[in-house]
Amino acid sequence: MTTSAERAQASDPTQLLSQLDAAKLAALAGKVDLAALLKAAAGMNDAQLRQLSKALGLGQSSKPRELPAPDADFFSLMETLSLEQQELAAQVRAFMHAEVAPIMNGYWSRDEFPRQIIDSLRPLDLLRRVWNEDGTRKPGATVTEGLIILEACKVDVSTAVFFGVHAGLAFASVALGGSAEQKAEWLPKMLDLQAIGAFGLTEPEGGSQVSQGLRTTCRRDGDGWVLSGQKKWIGNSTFSDFTVIWARDVNNGEVRGFIVRAGTPGYAVEKIQGKIALRIVENGLITLDECRVPESDRLQAVQGWRTTADILKLTRAGVAWQGVGCAMGAYELAVKYAQERTQFGKRIGEFQLIQNHLVHMLGNVTSMFTLCLRLSEMADQGVMQDEHAALAKVFTAARCRETVALARETFGGNGILLEYGVAKHFADTEAIYSYEGTNEINTLVVGRAITGLSAFV
Ligand SMILES: Cc1cc2nc3c(=O)[nH]c(=O)nc-3n(C[C@H](O)[C@H](O)[C@H](O)COP(=O)(O)OP(=O)(O)OC[C@H]3O[C@@H](n4cnc5c(N)ncnc54)[C@H](O)[C@@H]3O)c2cc1C
């Protein structure tokens, strides 16, 4: 809607003449009879006048129009959360931009985790937003945890994985499987990031089938246990103070969990090299060679595989949130790039096909965010079932994969360069897609729930 002041300004001859573009006018004079054109202007409709005005270079401000800042939270879902949660999200966001973003590409290139960020993370006291000292969870813990993961992943998924392994898998192992003494020994130190944990379940020969095919064994021997076997992919294990090792009792086939302290004789960790995703996470190949662990370090409250499954159920929502954050980060980078990059004399964001990519991505991240919020609310209310977490993991991982691919495509060739940011999101998504239950395994979990028929073989 034009105001009367704007209309008066538009018809002021002095104003109009001052806006004329001499070069465009001269070019136009070579093509049309300007006198006849001006006479015809009196009878032109709005569309024709706009066309003429454009040709004469009228009304084009030299100041570039301010474009909206990229924002993946299109439905303002953050505003539905408590003020405390919103402030926490802002703190994590600021931390990631100040402490991680400037160094992450170097560490990604070197296949290394920046251990110094553990010290700079400490003042945020993130674990105490989720867990109580006794290993119970705070009200709204899963939503809060989700927000921490989301904000971290928007910048760097590996940082969120460090947090998820320590504050999720390892912490939950002690919280759910530990005795009162074990919780008192480890949980306060873990809350303060003074003791870092890792979680060793997967084996070279046992990924998806690990619940049935656990080959690592434990054998009672006097006042302790002897552990033998290998664990693969164990995040944080190259520098953790302990790793929770899951093993099968040779006597009765029971699954047991052990706190294996770094430096224990017979326990060796080799860093897995050459990953194309999550290169900042240090994943270890652990060998347990007749590794002796005292009975006091066997997790006393573990009830066989049931406890392991409960831990995984608790953390699976967190992996779904990783997909949300990663996709949101890639989307915002793509919008910014589309607003800035020009081709054929236009910003690429002016091309309909590019807008189609961006809108598709935005639809994905909006539905992923909504789904994970509800999933976490259900977890916090104690009504989330395995199949809910499994569907969220399947859906968000797949949508994330699609979103980061479209984002990368929006960057053209620059999309494969680390310095533009989107390439790391693109690569990291491949790990999100496969861990904590692959696409196929989580699909089978949901399929069994909705049909009542198991398709597992
Ligand atoms: C970066 C990264 C970090 C990790 N961190 C940890 C960690 O900290 N701790 C830990 O314990 N583990 C960790 N893992 C292991 C992860 O959980 C496993 O990779 C995952 O469970 C899949 O196992 P797998 O890789 O052995 O694949 P496999 O189980 O060998 O699967 C290969 C393919 O076969 C399919 N498949 C298998 N069984 C079936 C079936 N019944 N029906 C249909 N399809 C099937 C799978 O879906 C997949 O597509 C990590 C993995 C990665 C990549």
UniProtKB/TrEMBL annotation:
GO molecular function: acyl-CoA dehydrogenase activity; flavin adenine dinucleotide binding
Entries under PROSITE patterns matching the protein: ACYL_COA_DH_2
Stretches assigned to the Acyl-CoA dehydrogenase/oxidase N-terminal domain: 84-192
Keyword presence, Cell division: no
GO terms under biological process: fatty acid beta-oxidation
Acyl-CoA oxidase/dehydrogenase middle domain sequence ranges: 198-290
Key words, A-Z: FAD, Flavoprotein, Oxidoreductase
Cofactor: FAD
Name of the protein described by the UniProt record: Acyl-CoA dehydrogenase
Residue span(s) of domain Acyl-CoA dehydrogenase/oxidase C-terminal: 303-450
